[in-house]
Amino acid sequence: MPYQVYDTTLRDGAQREGISYSVVDKLAVARLLDEFGVGFIEGGWPGAMPKDTEFFQRARKELDLRHAQLVAFGATRKAGLGVNEDPQVRALLDAETPAVCLVAKSDIRHVERALRTTGDENLAMVRETVAHFVKNDRRVFLDCEHFFDGFRHDSAYTTAVVQAAFEGGAERVVMCDTNGGMLPSRITAAIQELTSRLSISADLLGIHCQNDTSCAVANTVAAVEAGVEHFQCTANGYGERPGNADLFAVVANLQLKLGLPVLPDGCLEQAMRVSHSIAEIANIAPDTHQAYVGAAAFAHKAGLHASAIKVDPLLYNHVEPSVVGNDMRILVTEMAGRASIELKSRELGIDLAGHPTELSRVTQRVKDLEAGGWSFEAADASFELLVRGEFGEVPRPFALESYRVLVEHREDGAVVSEATVKVRVRGERVIATAEGNGPVNALDEALRVALSKHYPELTSFVLADYKVRILEGSHGSGAVTRVLVETNDGHGRDWTTVGVHENVVEASWHALVDALTFGLKSAPATRS
């Protein structure tokens, strides 16, 4: 496969604010990247970072990579030192990776001001360090830091750095848009000028783009279209400042839009799973609106879209979602028409196509509720209960007689919430009281106590998330509160429900009742 998919999530991506991978994290991310089919995984900077040194030591024993080669990252030798005298050069060899990536200054201003050496010495540093690793049987990539800025300032010198790397035996020389300020047309022009100056083919070059102009993906694709066959990315675009070129967007664009064979067969379908798994390891919520792999990448809200999708999903999807492991979703909102409701219901396993009367009632009900502040866009469970309710398919597990919530601020500063619920369950009147760390938690606990005798499966249900939003009133009415409750059954299944009312506790009650009703409706039967 001629294209070199080079991932630097574990080095450049780890420079994103808020990310701090442990060695175990790095090993897990490397396995995921290998499953996605990348060709090279840059594991870090041994010698400069103790954690990275440990990573390479453990990787040799613990990683069994099928598609990727590990790459150790480091700098060329320091000015005034021989390659055998520089401890960081030694550390790169000690990492025992089949490939190394060296970073070198290619902007004469950085050479003179940051390295405080001469242009000639920097060229010698590049040439000699590359040759040293080639002599030691390593594949060598050279990252030309600040390539594009340097090329615009003094193209002759930046070209000389590239030439020195090739003279040393570099396999690829990578043009880095370190400050992220380039645009696609300028990337293309620089590649054309450089290849003309050196009389080389562009496939000997690589590209590495930062995202400061929000053009990192576009710049990377432009470079490949100009003939470059080595491109460096990070998972989910993680990286310093606004980040790097997003691996999943770049690969999907190249493979699906340009028809280039950049990944092994069957790997692109892992995109969404790998993207979200790496986000979990990084402890960063997946970007809902990320291209290709975001949960909303193929989500449709407008009724006009839904009408067309009924005829052919590709009328409003630029690719088939499954090719990147994603799914199409229909969002149910005040913008929904009959087509949206029908498609969303079908998605949930309910066919409304043959029930036009019920379809009309559900559509109108959704519009009326959404106008009053309800939102089913993120509450599929409440929407499903609403639809099934039209067919009498949702037996309520209990009937409420009353509930009461007390909040007590005690002399010692402790704040305790207590809730009492009175319900009828299968002909039995039940009164239950419970305390919680807040009124909603207390109400949830009391309701579970009341129902647990008849529904023991409730003991595994967990209130996983609780969101409150205050909505401005309309038509002279006061503000209302919308509550979203996410519930988990302890076995990997979760669902979200919604409640709306002027009173936050009553809004929470609606969402809690829906949550328990939905969970019981589809839970494995454990009661006699």
Automatic annotation (TrEMBL):
A GO molecular function term, named singly, is: (R)-citramalate synthase activity
Residues of the Pyruvate carboxyltransferase domain: 3-272
Pathway membership, UniProt:
Amino-acid biosynthesis; L-isoleucine biosynthesis; 2-oxobutanoate from pyruvate: step 1/3
Recorded catalytic reaction(s): these are: pyruvate + acetyl-CoA + H2O = (3R)-citramalate + CoA + H(+)
Which InterPro entries does the record match to this protein?
2-isopropylmalate_synth_dimer, AIPM/Hcit_synth_CS, Aldolase_TIM, Citramal_synthase, LeuA/HCS_post-cat, LeuA_allosteric_dom_sf, PYR_CT
**Sorted alphabetically, which Gene3D superfamilies does this protein's record hold?**
1.10.238.260, 3.30.160.270, Aldolase class I (3.20.20.70)
Stated EC number for the protein is 2.3.3.21
Q: Read off the Pfam families from this record.
A: HCS_D2 (PF22617), HMGL-like (PF00682), LeuA_dimer (PF08502)
An example GO biological process term is: L-leucine biosynthetic process
Tell me where on the tree of life, at the top rank, the source sits. Bacteria
Q: Which UniProt keywords apply?
A: Amino-acid biosynthesis, Branched-chain amino acid biosynthesis, Isoleucine biosynthesis, Transferase
Task: Tell me the SUPFAM superfamilies matching this sequence.
Answer: 2-isopropylmalate synthase LeuA, allosteric (dimerisation) domain, Aldolase
Q: What PANTHER family does this protein map onto? A: (R)-CITRAMALATE SYNTHASE, ALPHA-IPM SYNTHASE/HOMOCITRATE SYNTHASE
Q: Which family does it belong to?
A: Belongs to the alpha-IPM synthase/homocitrate synthase family.
Mind telling me what this protein is named? Citramalate synthase
Species = Asanoa ishikariensis
